[in-house]
C-alpha cells in the first residue's frame, strides 16, 4: 500500500529532507538534523509541516451537543474563537485519540484535529453517533483539502506577525483568529505540540507552497525534532503513550484527568471513568530520569529492586538537557516523585528516578496534542 504525501512533499524533498512513514504518510523526519531543529525551536523559531494530521468539521444545530457527547471536555463552554484540548474515549473509558477542538471565530461550527491516520475513522465515528442520537449535524473530513503548518518557538509570534494582516500577539493561548498571512487566508490558532509558544495555521491545501514560502527564512523541522520537543514538554503521543489496542489507557491513568469535565451529565466512557475514579487507577503515567548511561525506548521494563513496576512508552536523549528521559506507566503505589527505580536497557538495569512528566521547568503545563 503506497504512502500518502502532503502537498509540500516535493518542497521537502528539494530541501534535502529525510523521510519516514508516520500514520500512513511519508513525512519529513529531519532536514538539518534533529538536534539543530530542536535547538531552533527552543531558542528562536522553527516551522513544521503537520498536514498529516486529520481535520474534521462539524456543523449544524446539534453540533455542540454531539461534540460534547463524544469528547471528555466541556465543549459547551467554548466561545467563538476558543480552542480546547480533549480526549475521545470508547465505552470502557479507554482513550481512542486525543484532539484539539476549535470553535470557529466567525461561525457556529467546529473543527477538530485527530491524529495522523485517524481522520476517516473519526469522521465515521461522529457520523454514526450523530445518527444514533438523531442529531442534526453535518460531519466532513477536511484532511485532504486543508493544509496545516506549525510555527513554534519563543520568536514564533513575532515571526508570524511580520507577515499577518492582524496581530497574532493579541490572540490568547488556545484561541483562534481568521487572518491573512502573505496573500493566504488562514485560521491561526495559538496552540502547539512543543511546549513553546507558537501557532498552528490552517489554510486551503492548494495554497501550501505559497504559505510555506512566506517563511523560507525559518528553520524547517521534521517529526524527529517534534518528538523530542513534545517529550521534553511531557506531551503524550497517540499510538505510543496510549492506544486502544497496544497501550489501552484511560485519562486518569495517563494523567489527562484535567481534560475530563466531571460536571457533564454524560459522554462516551463516563460511566467507566466514574468507576475507576472510585477505586483509583492501578497504574499511572510518570516521568523518568535515567541516572546512568543508556537511552530508554518504548517497551523497556521498569523495576524497583527485583519487583516489576511497569514499562516505558516514550524515551529519548533530551537534546536540551543532554540526559536520557522517558515517559512510562508504573504501579500506582510506586508512582511518587523521587522514587528510585531502574530501567532495563539491553539486559542491564540502569538506575533512574521518577520525576514530573514536564522535564523542562521553563515550559508551561502540558495541555496540547498531536500528533
How would you describe what is shown here?
With 371 residues, the protein is α+β, with helices and mostly antiparallel strands. The chain has a domain at 56-141: Alpha-Beta Plaits. Helices cover 19% and strands 32% of the residues. It is built from eight helices and 19 strands. The strands form four sheets. A six-stranded mixed β-sheet has the order 10-11-12-9-3-13. A hairpin with a 2-residue loop joins strand 18 (340-345) and strand 19 (348-355). It is globular and about 60 Å long. The two termini are 22 Å apart.
Give a short summary of the structure.
With 371 residues, this protein is of the alpha+beta class.
| CATH topology (level 3) name of the domain at 56-141 | Alpha-Beta Plaits
* Average residue-wise pLDDT: 96
Count of individual helical segments: 8
Outline the low-pLDDT stretches.
Answer: 364-371
What is the radius of gyration? 20 Å
CATH superfamily of the domain at 56-141: Aminomethyltransferase beta-barrel domains
Largest sheet: 6 strands, mixed
**Order of strands in the sheet with the most strands?**
10-11-12-9-3-13
CATH architecture of the domain at 56-141: 2-Layer Sandwich
List how many beta strands DSSP finds: 19
- Report the structural category: alpha+beta
What is the element string, with H for helices and E for strands? HEEHEEHEEEHEEHEEEHEHHEEEEEE
Which percent range describes the beta-strand content? Answer: 25-35%
Question: What is the helical fraction, as a range of percent?
Answer: 10-25%
Distance between the termini: 22 Å
CATH class division of the domain at 56-141: Alpha Beta
Shape: globular
Amino acid at each position: 500500500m503506497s504512502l500518502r504525501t502532503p502537498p509540500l512533499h516535493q518542497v521537502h524533498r528539494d530541501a534535502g529532507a529525510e523521510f519516514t512513514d508516520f500514520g500512513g504518510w511519508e513525512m519529513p523526519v529531519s532536514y538539518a538534523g534533529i538536534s539543530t531543529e530542536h535547538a531552533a525551536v527552543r531558542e528562536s523559531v522553527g516551522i513544521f509541516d503537520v498536514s498529516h494530521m486529520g481535520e474534521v468539521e462539524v456543523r449544524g444545530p446539534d453540533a455542540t451537543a454531539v461534540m460534547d457527547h463524544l469528547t471528555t471536555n466541556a465543549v459547551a463552554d467554548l466561545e467563538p474563537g476558543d480552542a480546547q484540548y480533549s480526549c475521545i474515549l470508547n465505552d470502557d473509558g479507554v482513550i481512542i485519540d486525543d484532539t484539539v477542538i476549535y470553535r470557529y471565530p466567525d461561525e457556529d461550527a467546529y473543527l477538530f484535529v485527530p491524529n495522523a491516520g485517524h481522520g476517516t475513522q473519526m469522521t465515521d465515528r461522529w457520523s454514526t453517533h450523530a445518527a444514533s442520537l438523531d442529531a442534526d449535524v453535518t460531519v466532513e473530513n477536511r484532511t485532504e483539502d486543508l493544509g496545516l503548518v506549525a510555527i513554534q518557538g519563543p520568536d514564533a509570534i513575532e515571526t508570524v506577525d511580520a507577515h499577518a494582516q492582524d496581530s497574532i500577539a493579541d490572540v490568547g493561548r488556545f484561541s483562534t483568529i481568521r487572518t491573512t498571512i502573505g496573500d493566504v487566508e488562514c485560521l491561526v490558532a495559538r496552540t502547539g505540540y512543543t511546549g513553546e509558544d507558537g501557532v498552528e495555521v490552517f489554510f486551503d491545501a492548494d495554497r501550501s507552497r505559497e504559505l510555506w514560502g512566506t517563511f523560507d527564512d525559518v528553520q524547517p523541522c521534521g517529526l524527529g525534532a517534534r518528538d523530542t520537543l513534545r517529550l521534553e514538554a511531557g506531551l503524550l503521543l497517540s499510538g505510543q503513550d496510549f492506544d486502544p489496542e497496544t497501550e489501552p489507557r484511560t485519562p486518569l491513568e495517563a494523567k489527562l484527568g484535567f481534560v475530563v469535565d466531571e460536571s457533564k451529565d454524560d459522554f462516551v466512557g463516563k460511566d467507566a471513568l466514574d468507576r475507576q475514579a472510585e477505586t483509583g487507577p492501578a497504574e499511572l503515567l510518570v516521568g523518568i530520569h535515567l541516572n546512568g548511561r543508556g537511552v530508554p525506548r518504548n517497551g523497556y521494563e521498569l523495576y524497583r529492586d527485583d519487583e516489576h513496576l511497569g514499562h516505558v512508552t516514550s524515551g529519548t536523549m533530551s537534546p536540551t538537557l543532554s540526559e536520557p528521559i522517558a515517559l512510562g506507566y508504573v504501579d500506582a503505589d510506586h508512582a511518587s516523585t523521587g522514587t528510585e527505580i531502574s530501567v532495563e536497557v539491553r539486559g542491564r538495569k540502569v538506575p533512574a528516578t521518577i520525576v514530573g512528566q514536564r522535564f523542562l521547568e521553563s515550559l508551561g503545563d502540558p495541555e496540547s496534542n498531536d500528533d
